[in-house]
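Structure (tokenized):
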């Protein structure tokens, strides 16, 4: 099937607190009294079969009790947790909307074939919702995700998102409310997205908050050095020797992994943060900073697409460094993490910069020189 895409520019309706409660067994007050009959009525007097209700909830992993046709506390708790997982109003009572979702006969259940399987909660909630919610930054980042001439997002990250959604039999829904890479990680940590595919570097700090998949791109780190500033600062030292004890100003994107990388790699440098990579380059051209610091792909994009701008810089690829790009997931989504890693392995998604430039060359930005003036 072909996955459709829905883009959302604000946080998703279900919260971190809600998703934390999915696996909790709740004591629901004011549940319908136990009734040995074969059916119950919803608040709108729509009858349903309690045995079928319990069977469906057991198949989905929410109900662990006996299939006895009695709507007791355990059944009510299962209904409550099912409502929580879908972002519905949680009452523990089966209203018509809840019953429609439980039966799986609405458009939000594109693949009924899953209904007979017992799935883990992190996978089940995606199947029940009918959507895989993917966080990406609000600004495009070619060749990972960028709008084409038709106004549609495409690129490597979009390809992965669509492939994962197809594997789950659901649609892709994008959450693009993140203004920085770190905010994309935060959205996942707070349960507002199932995962983030947004050219995210693996860092130890981020790994304390979320889990990372296996890398799907591995790059080296790179520098763009202002030639005039470098000549003044190096004082006849060669570039390699100068960088070993770098003490100048180095520009990075605010909220990116390169803030941390710069502190580790260049502890004596003065780190200057900018709102975007374009602003970092402008600062380097003006001489406000000595170096612009990012991955080798972004450095090469400047050289390829902006040759006049590139003349102002000396480019350096740091051969003793790595910048692994991976998918961020909530630490509790262990099954989804295994699913993602298996997808990356089966599809052989493991790129180098050379491979990216070859396969996605048409998506590389063709920015005007005015962008850096």
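Design, position by position:
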């Amino acid at each position: 099937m072909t996955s459709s895409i829905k883009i959302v520019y604000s946080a998703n309706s279900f919260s971190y607190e809600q998703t934390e409660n999915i696996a909790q067994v709740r004591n629901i007050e004011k549940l319908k009294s136990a009734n040995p009959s074969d059916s119950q009525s919803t608040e709108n007097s729509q009858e349903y079969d309690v045995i079928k209700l319990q069977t469906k909830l057991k198949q989905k992993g929410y109900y662990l009790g006996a299939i006895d046709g009695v709507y007791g506390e355990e059944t009510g708790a299962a209904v409550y947790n099912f409502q929580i997982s879908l972002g519905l109003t949680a009452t523990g009572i089966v209203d018509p909307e809840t019953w429609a979702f439980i039966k799986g006969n609405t458009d939000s259940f594109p693949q009924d074939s899953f209904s007979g399987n017992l799935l883990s909660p992190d996978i089940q909630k995606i199947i029940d919702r009918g959507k895989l919610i993917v966080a990406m930054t609000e600004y495009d980042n070619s060749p990972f995700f960028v709008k084409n001439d038709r106004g549609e997002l495409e690129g490597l990250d979009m390809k992965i998102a669509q492939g994962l959604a197809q594997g789950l039999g659901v649609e892709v829904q994008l959450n693009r409310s993140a203004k920085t890479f770190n905010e994309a990680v935060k959205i996942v940590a707070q349960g507002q997205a199932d995962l983030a595919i947004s050219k995210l570097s693996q860092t130890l700090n981020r790994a304390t908050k979320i889990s990372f998949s296996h890398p799907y791109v591995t790059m080296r780190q790179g520098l763009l050095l202002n030639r005039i500033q470098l000549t003044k600062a190096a004082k006849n030292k060669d570039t390699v020797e100068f960088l070993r004890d770098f003490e100048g100003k180095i520009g990075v994107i605010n909220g990116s992994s390169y803030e941390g990388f710069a502190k580790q790699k260049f502890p004596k440098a003065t780190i200057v943060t900018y709102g975007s990579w374009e602003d970092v380059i402008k600062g380097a051209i003006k001489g406000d900073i000595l170096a612009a610091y990012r991955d080798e792909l972004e450095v090469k994009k400047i050289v390829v697409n902006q040759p006049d701008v590139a003349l102002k810089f000396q480019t350096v690829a740091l051969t003793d460094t790595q910048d692994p790009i991976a998918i961020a997931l909530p630490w509790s989504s262990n099954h989804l993490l295994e699913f993602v890693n298996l997808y990356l392995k089966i599809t052989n998604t493991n790129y180098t910069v050379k491979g990216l430039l070859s396969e996605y060359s048409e998506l590389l930005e063709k920015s005007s020189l005015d962008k850096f003036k």
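Reviewer-requested clarification: The radius of gyration is 25 Å. The CA atoms of residues 285 and 365 lie 19 Å apart.
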